[in-house]
Amino acid sequence: MPDNDRERDLDRFLTFIDAIVAIAITLLVLPLVELTADLGEFDTVGDLLDEHQTQIWAFLLSFVVIARLWFVQHRSVRHVLRYHGRIAQLLMLWVLTIVFLPFPTALVAAEGSSAVTKLLYIGSMVVSTAVLTLLEALLVRHPELTDGHDDADPVDGVTNVLLLLAALGISIAVPATSYLPLLLLLAAGRVADGWRRLRGRGPRRTRVGE
Q1: Less Cβ crowding at N or C end of the chain, within 10 Å?
Q2: Considering the entire predicted model, what is its pTM?
Q3: Cβ-proximal residues to 123 (8 Å cutoff; 6+ apart), any chain
Q4: Is 44 helix (H, G, I), strand (E, B) or coil?
């Protein structure tokens, strides 16, 4: 979709949102940069990395999480042409969850097994996904805001929210599973398609870029 097809206000707003996400995902690496100050306390760089592998793992996990959420957001708004106050509100709420994520990421590195840490970390993902689901539902009700080629469908979002809640419950109830229950998200597509079949609908059409 050519950029000049979009209203100027919307285009500027989406650029603003993308800039905030870029800053948030960059902030994730700052704690790792600070680790270099401790290099003199270790014999080798390998020893430093081994000692702080939890922080490195937390960084990689959150990088993937934010990247995935951005791609979902991008696909949700790629066909939107007109600025709408409710869309702006939902996207600002969504970007708040992204800006917040580096905080629970730091907690994962320090107290990853804590139930409160898991609630904050996975809970922020739940809220972020739920907001994007509301955005998709809004676009279903207002197709005039799009270029007419959008296939917005809240089923995917609802499925992801339910799987995230299940992952949160398992992670807290069975601490030994750590954050592995998040792998349930890998089954989201099949679960959503199964849900559609039960409702008498076919699988969702694959969007360009998915």
Answers
A1: C
A2: 0.84
A3: 168
A4: coil
